[in-house]
């Protein structure tokens, strides 16, 4: 008789997490002691609009008893989601503005890069989501046929050299589907770089299988953008997922969102950024939370972020230091916010304040600037 060796299906673990996603008050209650605010928030989310879903893995990181737990604050809805705050918008980045929605599921607001939304599903719905207006409720994974108008637009617009594959979370799709989307994009000769934006290393790390990494690596250069917000998310499993991506040649970049009471302190973010760099993840952006309806309770004032990056400047290695970014309401583009280290300017010198608080003068060049011989722009 022949022994049949049954290999475990590497996709079984993540598919099981999606299937067992927490979507009811009962399931939530089995894992944590709900506050009245959370119960009300969950009921509201279940009733319609912006849904709730949490992988058992991500919920297992939550504190059963403390409602201020950074995991809970990110994934468990609260009463405050129903409260409006001044300046709230449904679509703060103007993604549905016809000036930016250049084709179905394709947003272009920069000259050289575009955002392709391949699904509206995520493994966990983050309560501060900038696309809460559409995620979880807008038709699920896009078919290749459905994406064809976007592909045609990219073919007709060769100035776009970079495509950000996002959603929803593109890595909730099967390897085959992801491979098919990337393969179609690679047939567009003008596209050099493809970014895959995913929170699965944080919320569903078992999704980052060797087979998925090999699929992605067939379409290099692929950059992976992920989204850790708090050191409690940096489990061995999550960091191993990031390292697997890096082992397959993908630079992994992190975009954290500043969230009030979650990571709104330099000491918390310092720990996060140091941990990420150890697993070869580059802290890329620290994003001011977008003014999305229902997120007022999670947003910080802009001076909080400025004080944090000022405190971390010099204290943290340059490779561990992200840029602080505000995405301008209306979809006008990202703007870096920076603490001012310049004390004074004159034609002779620039006086700067160093991270230690010492003022230092830098002597300015007095003679005419030279233009690089290879400069073609003449600016
Ligand atoms: C954020 C974003 C990008 C990428 O911006 P980078 O600063 O290059 O990271 C591109 N397109 C859209 C529509 C975006 O929202």
Structure notes:
- With 379 residues, this protein is of the alpha/beta class.
- It has two domains: 10-82, no CATH class; 101-337, Aldolase class I (TIM Barrel).
- It is built from twelve helices and 13 strands.
- The strands form two sheets. A ten-stranded mixed beta sheet has the order 1-2-3-4-5-6-7-8-9-10. Strands 11-12-13 form a three-stranded antiparallel beta sheet, with no helix packed on it.
- β2 (106-107) and β3 form a beta hairpin.
- α7 (175-186) runs parallel beside α9 (210-217).
- The radius of gyration is 22 Å and the shape is globular.
- The structure holds pyridoxal-5'-phosphate.
- Pyridoxal-5'-phosphate binds at residues 93, 107, 109-110, 113, 115, 164, 334.
Question: What are the salient characteristics of this protein?
Answer:
alpha/beta, TIM Barrel, 379 residues, 13 strands, ten-stranded mixed sheet, binds pyridoxal-5'-phosphate
